[in-house]
Amino acid sequence: MLPHVILYNAVSLDGRITGFNADIELYYDLVSKWDIDAVLMGSNTVLTGLGAEPGEIREEDLESLVNREKDPEDLRPFLVIPDSKGQIRIWDELFKMPYLRDIIVLCSKATPEEYLDFLKGRDIDYIIAGEKYVDLKGAMERLNSKYGIRSIRVDSGGILNGVLLNGGLADEIHLLIHPELVGNINESSIFISNDLNPLNNTIKLKLVHINKLKDDIIWIKYDIIK
Ligand SMILES: NC(=O)c1ccc[n+]([C@@H]2O[C@H](COP(=O)([O-])OP(=O)(O)OC[C@H]3O[C@@H](n4cnc5c(N)ncnc54)[C@H](OP(=O)(O)O)[C@@H]3O)[C@@H](O)[C@H]2O)c1
């Protein structure tokens, strides 16, 4: 079974996800009440968030990382990260996030063996799915069958959103629309796709919720019509 997948982004009115003053407190305050089993975070989002370069290594407390408590009764969400190229090495810092139960890395057959050993050395679970990139459908089926993950909130940029949308793997889109116009085409948007959809082949949405929050920010939720 495939988990239910919710894309969630803070955006400017012109659909950019960077280059404006996102209300981060509001963004996380809203999702803290959602009942989800996992957060799927793009590797670029992780690196940007931690201000790290791909492959960067920082000081880590390996002993407490390896001996961390794994409580089967823990109901907090997993953090799941596709990282087929083995770019993230600062796992110690990610485990300091308060909201997560444990981390699962999604790799592919192209992921260097050395990186898989790096993860094993930190007792971090990984799933191998796909040849070059991660086969997200196959990986999600495994997340469901092995870890019981039934619902996923995606915290990523337009690249991972794009792969999920084009693969028919996303079920809902939630946006926090901020009253700002960015206007810069170099700033990222919520949906990046190599294939420009012809007009009659766009992804269709159904509005299910709209709510004005503080400071003229709109929370809008659409179901994705499949
Ligand atoms: N405003 C918001 O709500 C918000 C939220 C999150 C992030 N952001 C911003 O978004 C930016 C990062 O976004 P981004 O779009 O550059 O990257 P991203 O979505 O964070 O990362 C790209 C992810 O897509 C995976 N991927 C790429 N091609 C794939 C394919 N063909 N099949 C399967 N997986 C594939 C990559 O996996 P591999 O590593 O395996 O290639 C990687 O994990 C940052 O600036 C961040 O601050 C904004």
Automatic annotation (TrEMBL):
InterPro entries: DHFR-like_dom_sf (IPR024072), RibDG_C (IPR002734), Riboflavin_Biosynth_HTPR (IPR050765). GO terms for biological process: riboflavin biosynthetic process. Keywords: NADP, Oxidoreductase. Residues 3-218 form the Bacterial bifunctional deaminase-reductase C-terminal domain. It comes from the Archaea. Pathway: Cofactor biosynthesis; riboflavin biosynthesis. GO terms for molecular function: 5-amino-6-(5-phosphoribosylamino)uracil reductase activity. Pfam families: RibD_C. SUPFAM superfamilies: Dihydrofolate reductase-like. Gene3D superfamilies: Dihydrofolate Reductase, subunit A. This is RibD family protein.
